[in-house]
Amino acid sequence: MSETTGADEKKQPPVNGRRALPSSNSNDEENEVPEMEAFGLIPRGFNPKDYLRVVDIYMFKDPYEINKQQHHTDKYYSPKLIVRRGQPFQIQIDFNRPYNPQMDQFWLEYLIGRYPQQNKGTYIPVLVGDVLKPGQWGAKITHRENNSIRLSIMSSVTCIVGKFRLYVAVLTPFGILRTHRNSATDTYILFNPWCQQDAVYLDDEKEREEYVLNDVGVVYHGDINEIKVRSWSYGQFEENVLDACLFLMDKAELELSGRGNPIKICRVASAVINSRDDNGVIAGSWDNTYTNGVAPSAWTGSVDILLEYYSSKQPVRYGQCWVFAGVFNTFLRCLGIPARLVTTYCSAHDNNANLQLDFFLDDEGKVDTKLTKDSVWNYHCWNEAWMTRPDLPVGFGGWQVVDGTPQETSDGMYRCGPASVQAIKHGHVCFQFDAPFVYAEVNGDVVYVRREKNGTQVVENIDTTHVGRLIVTKEVGGDGMREITEDYKFQEGSEEERLALETALMYGVKKQTTQDTTYQPQKDVDMELQVQKAVLGRDFKVTIIFRNKSHNHYMATTYLSGNIVFYTGVTKNEFKKHSFTAKLEPSSSSAFDVVIKSSEYLSDLLDQASFHFFVTARIKETGKVLAIQKAVGLEIPALRIKTQGETVAGREMSVTVEFTNPLKQTLENVTLRLEGPGVLRTMKKEFRQIPANSTLIWELKCFPRQPGLRKLIASLNCDALRHVYGELNVQIQKP
């Protein structure tokens, strides 16, 4: 042990009156373990060399050897042994002479943390027996030859997840002899989705390959009318990522004894992924200024972020929801908890959790941005983790929502989950953790309220279908999209949906009731908003269509407001105002076009290139208001990635990235990033300028490490243009 006693005393945390030992919440710290633990006075003639002595321990820890193959840990780029709990693994011990069971007695000791205790599961003596009991610690000899024995060791199915130190102890008449501290025999123990007794057991092999072993994924973004796709490199097997993930639990000060429980791990991780209130991994920024940091859209994966945090111990700047979710997914998969990244389109951020998103209109029918506190995010990314919920009634295990994006506090910290998806669907929001907040995110009503001059509020319009319209994740075994909206909610307007809402209300979700007297909609006129495909740097048109189903002539005073918005639905500014009076003939449809010029929006564009249109129309004859809103994303050009020559593991390969500037202006200070797990670590290149309509070409060389189908992911970033991505699937041949 390298720690001196002086440093030891300083670091010793204060012991409070209730516990004999300080709390043990660091996997990194160690204690001194005596190599000779005497039972009393040692006689003068005692020589440890007379007894059975360990000469060497062989861990079978290479990727092609039995342990990592059987435990599905062969992809981890680590020289140490990594196994999954509740499943046997092999080691070999070489002694100084043949082992004689009649005479010799030895056992193994696994220790974790600085204050190992047997009752906390942080000190585990493993005795050698005749049989291995499933899911319980034990060891048996499977082979004896000369001075060597081969052991099969079973770990407990509820074992702490982390890095254990291994000692072999030999009993002598005068004391216990132990092997010295040897970090080469350290053993990482992870969750085991392949083991039926494990809390994270998943019974489908294809799903395990996707949700635990796939190191790249897809992020769905954009908006409901223009779904955009980008790849994300999780990189959970890359060098040092496992240590970085264990460090996150130390940073969150999760007691070691709680680290066998996926519920506890998810709860503390959802807080430590963001930097609010605990100096966690990623600092969020939603204001389009990313000084002294990396713009959220520039990241291509989680590895750089986790490794930077692991070395600097300071929050990494900057992230938005998909970055928090991408890093959280890496953490969960790395530890062996099945996980997937989920996107909800039109996700409600309901500040007062009353299941109602209030949009306040002024006299003209414009949205009053000062009064309107709630917002509908174009999309929001969170994670689902798979586990049993023994803390809830039967039926609420399976996928659980966990969210590392800081939105609202839960028990005093910015965290969210785990909340059972099944409980959200059925309205059982009384079950921990944070189910009411997630229920509101996918189920709120959008209510348009007009304030009269005397202060009374008139409900002009209610849209019950706008929020949580589409919930998606990547399909298993492919890059396609899988819709999972029905996992979260019943069909809009169905009897079951009503019942789920009533259940949620009964369990304390607040919902303001709108009296029927104040709200009677205009039933005989429909209004629709259509937006032409919008390409960055070009003009496009917006069309408002009225359908008058009555036999009356109507005049509609119509107001269109075009806003540049953050993807969180928060408005930056209004760039287009247009009002006109529409004549609505009886029993007919009328369409009105409004042209949006690129010169009107380019100077104010935010990095998500997203617009939000509000249209309100007041029918003159009845005084009723029609209201509609729609988010629109611009089509952004992509990066092109190509490979030249051979693509063979261990041999040099050549990659080019190309991009053509579509804008009428020069792009300045452009950063390109390229990464691919198993192929190359993140490479970065800066370009001073890319003139209008010109093409940039970046060539680079790398040595792919792993054969098989791999993915290269690239991003381009500068102040005038963000969210530019490209990807390429590459088949890396075996040498």
Reconstruct the topology from this structure.
Layout (H helix, E strand, L loop, with lengths): L4 H7 L24 E3 L15 E5 L7 H5 L10 E4 L4 E7 L10 E6 L11 E7 L8 E8 L2 E7 L7 E11 L2 E4 L8 E4 L14 H9 L2 E8 L2 E8 L7 H11 L10 H11 L9 E3 L18 H10 L3 E4 L1 H15 L3 E11 L6 E6 L13 E13 L10 E5 L6 E2 L2 E2 L4 E2 H5 L9 H9 L1 E7 L5 E7 L6 E5 L6 E3 L1 H4 L6 H12 L18 E7 L8 E9 L5 E12 L5 E14 L3 E9 L1 H4 L8 E10 L5 E9 L6 E5 L8 E8 L6 E10 L3 E11 L4 E8 L5 E11 L2 E12 L3
Parallel strand pairs: 3-11, 6-7, 14-15, 17-23
Antiparallel strand pairs: 1-10, 2-4, 4-8, 5-6, 5-9, 7-8, 9-10, 9-11, 12-13, 16-18, 16-25, 18-19, 19-22, 20-21, 23-24, 25-26, 27-28, 28-31, 29-30, 29-32, 32-33, 34-35, 35-38, 36-37, 36-39, 39-40
Helix pairs in contact: 4-6
Pfam families: Transglut_C, Transglut_core, Transglut_N
Keywords: Acetylation, Acyltransferase, Blood coagulation, Calcium, Cytoplasm, Hemostasis, Metal-binding, Secreted, Transferase, Zymogen
Protein name: Coagulation factor XIII A chain
Largest sheet: 11 strands, mixed
Mean pLDDT: 89
Based on Cα principal axes, name the global outline.
elongated
The N- to C-terminal Cα distance equals 42 Å
CATH-level-2 architecture of the largest domain: Alpha-Beta Complex
Strand content: 35-45%
* Strand element count: 40
CATH-assigned fold name of the largest domain = Coagulation Factor XIII, Chain A, domain 2
Low-confidence stretches: 1-13
Structural class by SSE content: mainly beta
The gyration radius over C-alpha positions equals 30 Å
Helix content: 10-25%
Number of helices: 12
Per CATH, the superfamily of the largest domain is Transglutaminase-like
Assign the CATH class of the largest domain: Alpha Beta
Any idea how many domains? Answer: 4
